[in-house]
């Protein structure tokens, strides 16, 4: 059950509020423009609420992986500009590579109620990812209240996500974080049934903890994408040049057995699109899984599998999806992924996209608006689905 203190439980008027957002947005290398502003837009309700309540809003976030070495290409400057446009007011960018210093402190102490500033990329400081106390204390020294609205970073025990809360008296979660935890948590704890989980993407090894957790909760577990070929191989079929994690064969067999014992329907592909090469224009065709030629690799689920999977989805009342069904970046192999997205968009059920590539695919195909929720966190939502506590959530006080 959701029991964290939220932004609605505290009075922020006249207070210096450090708001951790996830502004880790993709930026075009050629133009320097933000190419997907979803994470910025998702953070606006919390920022607007703080402005309306008369807080002094100090925004912070990481971007990319600078590993403690400041670089212009990972500056948050474009984010400050885009935020200013959305909010219709200046978001002053504090362009200091050390993120917090005496000048920053001076500017913050001169802020008026309703002002907004944005700190430089927190990962320009090497202490950030090590959760070192000195940087957590520096961040805490800027504020009276800390609010975490960065679901996409909640699985990281970093200074600006977790450590800082040790040195601030009052902390809470923002609206985005609250929404993510309520929806994902609600679906896992009390799903309306039948509850179907669809997993895809490249690797079994990335999803083991998720499978381990969800096999105890879901009614149907659908496995597609690159990871399915390890299951197909485990059943004794040849898979040609398809993705294989040979060391996960026993795991796949164990899971198929466990599903049977528990009465969980575990669906894997019955046919597959195979291509001669990993190339959109390579010769490709559909075969049953018993007949995958040695010189081909599986790149998408086939028509019969689309029918099998979408029929199961149509019978469901809660559906969570993480990971594409094929190499959806290549248009010839995007059919399976698109069929899942379309079916989820059409059914009357709680439909949740667990971030990452499937969120990108759903948005790109125009189905995002039709889902109950598209998570802003890839790694974070996967860890949430694994049932582990997220450091950024645990660190926030309970009501
Ligand atoms: P993940 O990050 O684990 O969700 O994996 C996403 C990636 O898996 C995407 O880039 C897809 O192109 C890739 N993928 C999905 N299906 C396959 C496949 N059959 N063979 C190779 N890669 C795949």
Please tell me about this protein's structure:
The chain has 399 residues and is an alpha/beta fold. It has 2 domains: 7-176, 3-Layer(aba) Sandwich (Rossmann fold), CATH 3.40.50; 183-385, Rossmann fold (3-Layer(aba) Sandwich), CATH 3.40.50. Helix content is 33%, strand content 16%. It contains 13 helices and 15 strands. The strands form 3 sheets. Strands 3-4-2-1-5-6 form a 6-stranded parallel beta sheet, sandwiched between helices. Strands 9-8-7-13-14-15 form a 6-stranded parallel beta sheet, sandwiched between helices. α9 (303-314) runs parallel beside α10. The structure holds adenosine monophosphate (AMP). Residues 201-203, 206, 225-226, 243, 298-299, 323-324, 326-327, 329, 356-357 line the site of adenosine monophosphate (AMP).
